[in-house]
């Protein structure tokens, strides 16, 4: 009788319970077999949805916080933490904040720009790309990232299509400027990142930056009233015709900057960026992603397959970006004696 008594509670269960239990177990096994990443994907989706909802709620409450605002707060909170590492030199959050202030002050002092103006930026991967970008953003300007691989007619088309008041050119791209200068619109003021210049009617910027104040410009210069306002123009490659400008809003910058965070990166990570900063992957997901995390970025002048892993080892890189064929180039490299594969997030 004792054995029957032990089984008696089971006999009292509704007849559908064993079937339901078997169904749940079957679904679990099918999910594990056919959709092994279902719960991880669901957690990621909920994380992204909650982030978007939080941003929308802030906007409805009048609490508009842009990526630039987040960077300025980080410069106050962790001023001595490395933000950029470029060719071995460390630029802290405070360093980048102060130099971008100088650039904003230089343009403000010379009365060259006002809130809402568009500025075209033709520079390669270097810290001053980010300094100029942030400095112009602090003035409330819309910045157009120009692809430095585009030349002559296509480049002139990019400049004219975004109708900039100013074109800022890096010191290593003066040859490109010389090609387009005769045909550049006369109402576009050209500023180059040097202390002296042989081009007629072209302004130097480096000397003015060094003479400018590090004081922050008034917050109302760049305060945003609407997250849907345009802040960047990022151009297509032009493989199917002339390049076209994608208009990027504050909201899109925030969403792009949240990508590394959404995939699990943290403030302790060191992100390696070899992609061109005129590309949204490097600028929005990479630099913006570092700001969202409060992390450190190792910036490379240009992608080098032969130096890639040695750079990762040298700077203790934990996160890398890749698009297109980058991984194939890396896999095609010969094995270097003494180098071990590291655990890095892609």
From TrEMBL:
Belongs to the ATP-dependent AMP-binding enzyme family. It comes from the Eukaryota. Keywords: Ligase, Lipid metabolism. GO terms for molecular function: long-chain fatty acid transmembrane transporter activity; long-chain fatty acid-CoA ligase activity. Residues 75-334 form the AMP-dependent synthetase/ligase domain. PANTHER family: LONG-CHAIN FATTY ACID TRANSPORT PROTEIN, LONG-CHAIN FATTY ACID TRANSPORT PROTEIN 6. GO terms for cellular component: endoplasmic reticulum membrane; plasma membrane. This is Long-chain-fatty-acid--CoA ligase. One of its GO terms (biological process) is long-chain fatty acid import into cell. InterPro entries: AMP-binding_CS, AMP-dep_synth/lig_dom, ANL_N_sf. SUPFAM superfamilies: Acetyl-CoA synthetase-like (SSF56801). It comes from Accipiter nisus. PROSITE patterns: AMP_BINDING (PS00455). It catalyses: tetracosanoate + ATP + CoA = tetracosanoyl-CoA + AMP + diphosphate; a very long-chain fatty acid + ATP + CoA = a very long-chain fatty acyl-CoA + AMP + diphosphate.
